[in-house]
Write a structure and sequence with these properties.
The chain is of the alpha+beta class. It has seven helices and eleven strands.
């Protein structure tokens, strides 16, 4: 059994919410997309990305009747191929819309997604929206940030303490629609009873420490209360960006 809850808030500074969320329990598909491009174009990119991924996941439930426009990767499971293809299609559609309509040039969106099938989860992302797993009281990031900062962390060129306030910390190295092709980060995760996934835009994890988010998940009961606690933490820091949260809990051991 899957329980989910989604919330998206404009934050304390922005006038428009360019984040979009999806929690489709019937498909087992959960997404946060953080649009960018200004003048409401970010929300166009985010809407288009989410609808594209959702449509492909729905149509590919019968794999014998679906095409694989980017080929099939035999190193990945069927479900991982489905999610990766859906995200790459989303990139293509956002990119092509920007090509066809000059007013959309420069728009794009992050995508962070979880696809649940039976007792496994497929996690995919492009950009800096994240997926976390909360298990046994520990919060673990499962996604890879496509940011300038992340590309230098772990090297001698940038100390971890300097990364959080670095002027380049929000610069993305890729996002859906920002280039003709993207590299989708994909990983698979077996599920245990009680596993909770947190999908968030950087309006949350960009200003709220992982330890604080983990505490909110550990101390609140019910997904709606957890989401409210996370949003409250962001608002206490004046939430300079849109804040989006999707929570899902797996409550059945197969």
């Amino acid at each position: 059994m899957i329980e989910s809850y989604a919330i998206s808030h404009v934050g304390c500074v922005r006038r428009h919410n360019e984040d979009r969320v999806l929690a489709d329990e019937s498909l087992g598909l959960f997404i946060v997309a953080d649009g960018m491009g200004g003048h409401k174009h970010g929300e166009v990119a985010a809407d288009l990305a989410i609808s594209t991924v959702r449509q492909y996941i729905e149509k590919s439930r019968e794999p014998a009747e679906v095409t694989w426009p980017f080929g099939y990767c035999f190193d990945l499971s069927l479900e991982a191929n489905r999610l990766s293809t859906g995200m790459r299609l989303a990139n293509r559609r956002v990119w092509r819309l920007a090509e066809q309509a000059p007013e959309y040039i420069g728009m794009g969106t992050t995508i962070a997604a979880v696809l649940l099938v039976d007792d496994r989860a497929v996690i995919g992302n492009v950009g800096d929206s994240r997926v976390y797993l909360f298990r046994g009281g520990e919060l673990t990031q499962l996604t890879t940030d496509d940011t300038w900062i992340a590309s230098f962390l772990g090297t001698d060129l940038l100390a971890p303490d300097a990364a959080r306030n670095h002027p380049m910390r929000n610069v993305l190295t890729q996002a859906a629609g920002s280039q003709e092709t993207i590299d989708v980060h994909i990983r698979e995760q077996s599920l245990l009873k009680g596993d909770t996934f947190l999908i968030s835009s950087d309006g949350l994890h960009g200003i709220v420490e992982d330890q604080t988010m983990g505490y909110a998940l550990a101390t609140e009961t019910g997904l709606s209360r957890m989401a409210a606690a996370l949003l409250r933490e962001a608002q206490q820091k004046n939430a300079p960006d849109n804040v989006s949260v999707v929570l899902l809990r797996y409550d059945r051991q197969i």
